[in-house]
Write a structure and sequence with these properties.
Length: 330
Amino acid sequence: MTRVAKLFYIVGILLFLITFTLACLYANKMHTLGKQNPDEIMPDYQYHFMLIPEELDNDYWRLVEKGAMAAAKANHILLEYVGPKQSNINEHLRKLQIAAASKVDGVLTQGYNDKQFTPVINHLVNKGVPVITVDTDAPSSQRRAYIGTDNYYSGFLAGTSLIADTKGKINVAIITGSFKAEHQKLRVKGFKDAIANEDRIHVITVEESNITRIRAAEKANKILTEHPETNAFYGTSALDGIGIAQTVVRLNRVQSTYIIAFDTINETLDYIRKGVIDATIVQKPYEMGYKAVEMMIQIQEGKPIPEINNTDTRVIHREDLIEKKGELPQ
Ligand code: BGC
């Protein structure tokens, strides 16, 4: 290598390291402002919002974040994505309390559990911080609006799909994200109501996964051990279907087991393409995030917004993926 080439090489590496370090610092600041002055991070921001999900490190919530960040970028909004790294109600509530103490202009949060979240949401509103619930509503609270799936309807849709897709006696086990989460309860209720008049379909048991694929896999294993007659599963949150699929594959029961899942994250779509998961309920997390930011801007500008904003829900099967070459809008 000549001297000049060596010099270019070293300068190139240095530039890369400086850019990389700055990018990391900036990304980190966007997620946890801490005691930082927001003006230092985005000098020309119009409003400062916080998006608080039940779990940061979750592929489903990353899509909500992606949509919200895109809308924030398009509208000069300083958006912080903060919340528990792994699902934890107390931690989630604490983040909302921190938001109330800080000077944010608006909060977008999952409502999760009406009883526990209503006082905290009302506290924010009383402090002058408007709240929009995303993905899960807290209808008793003073939140200004809800954007997300009609969760009862989505569960009902899962039940009607099970009826339409199967024949003969079905013993179905349900694995749900949490017994305490409002939207999970609605998804179970809608499902049970849909199958209530079908004598050939019987619910064996309902278990909780704490929204982790590992727990869902363990629960599926427990169910198949205790109730070997189980020949169908319904997973009501994004990682449940994946955990169930892992166990069903491991136990070599793919042919004899019908699985209906929730959401369209990549692992679920892969299992559908392989014929392990039979169907999944599509939600619109990207759109929820994008529109939630737009709605919060409208609130800041004193414009009226509808209280309930349901995003589309539908069911898809393997054929839908093959026809559309696997591309699904989020
Ligand atoms: C739900 C989210 C939940 C996620 C868990 C989705 O189906 O809508 O509320 O956090 O699953 O993986």
